[in-house]
Task: structure prediction
Amino acid sequence: MVYKFSYRATWYNVPAQQAGEHLRALKEKHGELDKYILLEDSRPEDALLHNCFEWDDAKAAEGFRLNQAQSFITNITCVMVDDEGKETEPVRAFVNVADQSHAQRGSFVAIMDAMSDEKRRAIVLKNALGELVAFQNKYSQLTELAKVFEAIEDTIKESEVK
Result:
């Protein structure tokens, strides 16, 4: 089997083939593979994947808090309420308008602002389509999702035409 990193994970300082084989060996050794097994295996300084982790507790803590902050922002939803008090389905209140293909940090804007601005809306759509492609790549072996994948392909083609 040939192992490669996904396009989003290109910063690791170990060849993907070695990493994949190591993960497979860990799975064989433990009967399963999870984040706890991987972290414990990587603690020794001479471990193959040791340098793929941040071991400075202050930096790691700050990184964790940044992930928490992002999670907080992305988990706030909003609903619209009509004159009769009926609510719509909840949607994310804030969306990131970074162009993910250019690794920009970006910022979050209110969903209503993003949807009413042509440039921001295009970025949100591009990012959403990228997430659909990632989903398709992740689950491509599931033939039960063929109709979903077909709809993704059709949507991508339609968005390219516009």
User: Anything to note?
Assistant: The mean pLDDT is 90. The chain has two domains: 1-54, 66-161. Residues 118-138 form the longest helix (21 residues). The first strand starts at residue 77 and ends at 78.
